[in-house]
Known about the structure:
Blueprint: H1 11-46, H2 62-72, H3 83-101, E1 117-120, E2 123-126, H4 135-156, H5 160-191, H6 196-203, H7 216-219, H8 223-235, H9 247-250, H10 260-285, H11 300-323, H12 329-360, H13 364-404
Antiparallel strand pairs: 1-2
Amino acid sequence: MDPLFSSGLSVSVVAVVLIKVLIVFAFLLIATMLMVWFERKVIGDMQNRIGPNRAGPWGILQTLADGIKLFFKEPMVPDRADRRIFRLAPYLSFVPAFLIFSIVPVGGVFANGGDGTVSILGHDTYVQLADPPIGILVALACSSIAVYGVMLAGWSSGSKYPLLGSVRASAQMVSYEAALGLAVVTVVLATGSLSTHTIVAEQAGAGWGDVLPNWTILVTGGIPFLIFLLAGTAEIERPPFDLLEAEQELVAGFNTEYSGIRFALFYLASFMNTITTSAIIVTLFLGGPAGPLVFGPDWIWPLFWFFAKTLVFLFIFVWFRATLPRYRYDQLMDLGWKVMIPLALGWMLAVAGLRVANDEGYDFGQMLLLVGGGMVVLVGAASLLSIARRTARHRRDDVELEGAQ
């Protein structure tokens, strides 16, 4: 629990909380503006284009200009829309993105036995807005709430194309939520906590052989990290999994009927989700702000490591968008249900078995037997799943052939 509340509530404690809220809110808005500019510039470079270069130096104020334009555009509401739900839906997409980032530790010294606390107005606290004991479950719950914003936006528009886009989005997000949750369970098994602060603290310091870091990407074998990265990409509807905005089929997806500032809120939530997903990946798998203290003030380096790691994943998301073609919808669902969920479940069970064996003090022979038996089970299950997929595909091809004849 955050030590800020160890002595109860007071005026200064409330002031510290308000300062944190303002800093996080302002940071996310500014970071989202810069993310839009960063994505346009990087894609422009990858596609041999200039990108935005009119508003401000290097076009850095282009996002601000777009926001001002959208703010003053007329916010139209379709005649057949459910007006109350239509107005509410953008906020159900925007607010969860902000709430997810509130549990992310962005600073604090964890090296050399540090516990990540800093002093603000005479109170010890963590460099994160909130640290609930079930922090990572809060992130999963907020990502699930975002589904309602998308679904209600399409349903309340009173038009078939937005409704089709929202149904696609709901099916996609629910499918990949399962794989995402299983990857998170694997991290919780490895670290022994649901608190994001404790997860980061468990990854601080040296790992195997005092050479490699103690990051969970290494402790869990890397597979949960890859699953979380791909499932997170699909969860926030980033390319190549942006089927809910397939313009060639759905006009513009669930937000077709939106304009003005309400459309801007969906746009803002999309890029804010990219930032929060990158921050969550860094927190769960790469130690968050934990890292070596090289020189100078200690408090600078945790912030540097956190933002450097997050920037790497922001670049990866942009790289995906610039280079990968969009999946077909059947490919998207097959990857989620037939590959990622079975793999995430099998790997989670393997990690759980190793944790139990370690706690029970198994010797080398017992551990080898456990690992060998686990591998046989995983390979057998994968083989059966592959046979079932191949059989279903052949049957589908036969049915299509008979229909064509």
